[in-house]
């Protein structure tokens, strides 16, 4: 249960294509625009596919290799859609010492996926991330951009099942 | 497997116990039993939850996160009834929801001096008038109205302000080089790519007092002759980015950024640029490559940014905290500033104290305080009464210092000589339960992953170091591994292109230096003295103390523990993944690690 269902490319969706065009138009005049455009597209679309990279390169008049080089260099840029909910484990030093690996084990056990993977229903993506700077709260789990500190394994299993349950009800 | 729908944590802080926490717990268990909720709600002991002095005794109910404070045995009944039976929170005993971030910055301790952190939590970072009310932008006005750029540079030189990013280069000298560079335009960059795990000083400043950084940048820009500035902030800090953007807009409205600042004819504006999750971008040449829109790969220096930086133009780069010092120095004067600190390092330094220390959070101390004063007098010593083992300073490029180094004064030179670095201010305290080989492996995993791959010593070398460390932790270490670690480390340190590679072997070298016997125990005796490395340890349940409470069996993630209620349980070693959860949840010390 690791792969995400195949989805059409954002470029094939008129609404999304509009967002892409607007973003490029909005920022491409700046110095060093490529990073700015990619950062906004990652935020607005959620991922940057290969066709999107080629499209951005053409529109901004830079080689595709450069766009791909930048996208693949930075860990924030993803080329595949992520799950509806993103659960990130902070693996900074304090969280590591504070036992975040037990939380990762718990998540593997509950969801059957590894960090970097998405559940087959597209509901939850697990990720690890670098220090989120909330070290006094270690160990920290970031669920949909919300920091949860001092998480214990037993409590965390419940947090995950709560996400699953909330979706069943919805 | 029993499934509790709720968990009640009871604070067992000594102060709370003194105020009756044990009675509260007893009453809770009694009330729950009366309502036949014992199978649904579990009651657990917890370290302190809120402030024991003002809020204790207190309990925290999960999953709701309801925090009930100032309890007495008489108030427990109503809470149990309302909360667990009726499903309502009892407002009169509930603590006000607090901003979680607040506990990162408590009241200053005796030996602290707060300059950089003084406004945080006291002024509204999204209201420029709050900053102006505490003499904000006075220094900029003074500089633009009364001082020549040369005078500003001389003042900063005389203040002996040094780069707070970690390298400790004199800020005034940097400014002087950028001023003297003939090419134009010039740029001013603030390095807010605080990537060291365990460090969050800069985030707090950006989120709590952003104008102090902007003012420092504007003063620096006037001194070096720059008209455009960039703050490069990591993407992991979205709140800092939005606070900065608000602050910049307000400063423009008030004529403190933009064209003709305060009628002086000096133009300066600032833009925020976001990183995208690459640690190496904290290195100045990589950071500039990233602002230019490309891959954040470092390049060889010289040429230094002061002569050829952003877009090939003279550029001055300083860290967040460095800039935040500048307005204070100008406004309050040299005499005041240089009265703090040690001989070669003036002023204060912020640290993020984390790990196994009683009080984690941000602190600010004058240079020259000893590690012992910081960890014991300010940090309150080691959590849970365990023994101190090591303190890690300077992030992944820093080193681990043992107990024998505790009396070293904290400044750039001393930490460097001891085999660590000052770094940007992460300080992680480790107790006796930390395996130093595992810590070296952890940092190498980080560095190896974050190595940009441009130069071979770093890209390949860190990978090889990691492989050897993994081998040792897995119990497969052999004769010659230690020598190979040393040899490789030396080569990586000497031949890497940037600070990341040059500093990468530090955690390995410093642990080899101070904790050689642990390496030897792993390699020759196949033993992990701290009982951390999973391949080298075994969990067992001891017959006597085990009461058969079933807590371990219920919490075991792989179902390796079996046993009847009230009978001694057994761990199936073939199934056990050595996660250590049973060890943590056992209330009777019945789990033995060997």
CATH class of the largest domain in chain A: Alpha Beta
Largest sheet of chain A: 4 strands, mixed
Please report which band the strand proportion of chain A falls in: under 5%, 5-15%, 15-25%, 25-35%, 35-45% or over 45%. Answer: 5-15%
Which architecture of the largest domain in chain B would the CATH scheme give at its second level?
Answer: 3-Layer(aba) Sandwich
Strand segment tally of chain A:
4
- Major sheet strand order of chain A: 2-1-3-4
- Helix percentage of chain A: 40-55%
Largest interface, by Cβ-Cβ below 8 angstroms: which chains and how many residues each?
A-B, 49 and 61 residues
- Report the principal-axis shape of chain A: elongated
Shape of chain B: globular
Which structural class should the secondary elements of chain A be placed in? alpha+beta
Overall mean pLDDT of chain A stands at 88
Quick summary of this structure?
The complex is a heterodimer of chains A (170) and B (594). With 170 residues, chain A is of the alpha+beta class.
Q: What are the defining features of this structure?
A:
heterodimer; A: 170 residues; alpha+beta; Glutaredoxin; 2 domains; 7 helices; 48% helix; B: 594 residues; alpha/beta; Rossmann fold; Ubiquitin-like (UB roll); 5 domains; four-stranded mixed β-sheet; 24 helices; 39% helix; globular
